[in-house]
Request: fold
Amino acid sequence: MPLQNRVAPSGQITAVTARGKFMGNRGGVIHNENREIVRQYASRRWLTCVLEFKGRRRTMMSPNRYTELFFLDEAVALAAGHRPCAECRRERFNTFKAAWRRSKALSEGAPVLADSIDLELHEARINRQKGKVTYWAPLNSLPDGCFVRIAGTSYLVWNGCLFRWSAAGYDAKLIPCDDRAVEALTPEPIVKCLAQGYRPKVHDSLLAL
Reply:
């Protein structure tokens, strides 16, 4: 029986066998002694990490250790509201910060602190009722790397097309042809970073479609 540790673009944590290209966490322990998810997050520091780093080894959902979560790819992690880790993905975090700075029209040398990013992201990804924050936008206004939900299904915007997400990979390609309003799953501050040139790492299945 797979553990409940795979994250969907909606932010929901599900139990599936495949683990994807990235690991992450939501700021601490969100599982119990039976390795069951009992809350959505521990703090507002939601991170996306590499699967391996400096030879460190972990036992999944160990007692009193942060809960390991997995994502198909970085685009899914961003849609769920996770940013790059500043330790194991330092270069990507710096690239993300630069896009964040541009999205705020800050000067090149202006400091961008992880705490301030996490505070703004938390307000943009989850509401007081612990529900996913989404917003509506014209489909053709959304940048590559953004996830949208159409008729209950999650799609990735990439190179002018829509790619249908599944836990195992992307399995269908559609071509958006209008400016209809769609529900954006990726938090708006991250969408603005994508529009400023941050390009997420995507799953190999995308390239086969």
